[in-house]
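Amino acid chain:
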Amino acid sequence: MTRSEIIKFLILRSIGNFLILFSLFGVIATFGPTIYYEALFRIGQARGVHYQVAEPVTKSSLGDVLKRHSGNSNSTFNSSSKVDLADVLSGAKEQILTPIDTQFDILIPKIGANARVFPNVDPSNPNIFLPILAKGVAQAKGSVFPGMLGNVYLFAHSTDNFWDVGRYNAVFYLIKDLVPGDSIVIFFENQRYDYVVTGSKIVDPSNVSYLVNSQHQNRQQLILQTCWPPGTTWKRLLVFAKPK
């Protein structure tokens, strides 16, 4: 090979390596959070990890909960506001979830989810909801609050760029694994509200009927929304729950 051919080969190989690395980075940036949550869930299932929501949530009463279970030599408990990889890999098989903020918080024991909820968020304005979804879950403006007749509509999704979806919907990524009978706990204004999952549905993004009709119901209902399939904005996955 001539010198010019060698230089051309090295340049093309460098460009090729760069494109491969760039592609890998894009995949990790997009799907990394969802892969992380999926791994936590599957490893936890394999180890038999179970989550319990602290009741009540004051320090003294949480201590009572821990004390009650510390007398049971067959099980140990960890108390945490967030689930991490170390807890799932080597922590106790029975763990206590404590709400991040009892003013408004959602906890889903089956999937170890625990997130702060931000109220009265306009779901039609990305400039408003995207920064909030980077920090937690949003309660859609126009829907009702726990304890009121109507739909409590909580969402954790992104509708702007493809590469942002994984970052924003990771909190609710695992709600796809919820089935009828699973528990959801909401804390609102320091009060606990227990719900049980009744079903789920995949709808078009343009279907806003459950939100528009939130205040025109004669029953209490909780609705969780995220994007579907994960990593896209094609559809919306809705999970429905009713008070226990």
User: Anything to note?
Assistant: Helices lie at 3-47, 59-70, 85-90, 126-133, 165-169, 209-212. The longest helix spans residues 3-47. Confidence is low (pLDDT under 50) at residues 68-80, 159-163. The CA atoms of residues 151 and 210 lie 7 Å apart.
